[in-house]
Amino acid sequence: MTALSPTLLTALLEAERALGRLAEACRPADRRQRLWADAARREACAAARLDGIAVDTTDVLIATVNPDLVPTAGRPDAQSVHALWRGALFAQGVLAAPERRAGPSRSATGDAAAEAWRAVAALERGLDTKDDADGPDDGLDRNHDAPAPESPQPWTLGWIEACWRVLQTGVSGRDPARLALNPEREREATALLARLDGAGQAPALLGGVELLAELLRPQPDLRTPAWLVPPARLLGTLAVTRSCRLPGVWLPLSTALWTDRTTAAIAARGDAEGWAVWLADAVAETARRERQRLATLEQAAQSWQRRIGSRRSNSRLPEVMDGLFDQPAFTVRRVQKRLGTTFRGAQLLVDELIEAGILREVTNRALDRVFVAVDLMP
After folding, report:
1. Looking at residue 21, what is its pLDDT?
2. DSSP code per residue over 103-168
């Protein structure tokens, strides 16, 4: 192994310290879930901006309830961000891979690696489960004690195809059961996986940085076709977890690429070590930002509690407020469904949160009004 330069070694050590602090902060499951749900929204917005999509955060939150409720002018962009959000939830294991309809086997390409990946994918397809019938607004109704849905494992062709299907379904509205990679795209995905297999051989965080170097290089990178860029970014969020064995950490690295996009582009076009140093620094900075965001979410929860003050013992307000971290946008009907109460009872709870300054209505509609938590805008 080539000796590491002092600059890269220092950056890796700092990143390891930052990751350790984040992993410790995310140890409680409820805190980790809050942060991950928030990070998925921020990851989707940042990835969309990297792709040149105009992001209106209010429209994005409305789309998590139902993309059709977004005003017509902003709907295409909101649908694109919504698809990226669903992809992030898939990468986190919150959403299962869409059900796939069995079809005729494809002809062999003659490439042994491709055949191996196809064999793995064929095994994994038997584990696919159907997504929640409620669709985009599943976050508020999520059962926190339920086991994560089974999906193909990351770093396999089956995972890339499932992720691509999630993204394509969100943008095009096509039936996910009928979507499948064509042979050319299979070859392109297999080529990426082969590059990753070689890049991730180094131990611990160094291997993670090598993976990130392959996955997060800004376009144009002719080795990564445009259709593969969104799944590649989501694999990037999992690279550190894979290499450092930190299952409680999920880094929305698209936020780093967007926030520091000028320096990222300069580093990516420089030598390999300069790009690796920037990525190690980005891991450290992202981990620090996630710890700060976690603290902000904790402060929001405490602030909300102070604003509503002491309520009657049978009040359902705390339950509604806890649900906001998973789904900060919702309709009264959704609250009614989740709590099993009357529409009038749900409306009274929402009115109390509006009066406390926790929620505001964003659709200006007479029906299907959407309310959002003002402190949780991505």
Report:
1. 97
2. -PPPPP-S-HHHHHHHHHHHHHHTT--PPPTTGGGGGGG--TTSPPPP-PPTTSHHHHHHHHHHHH
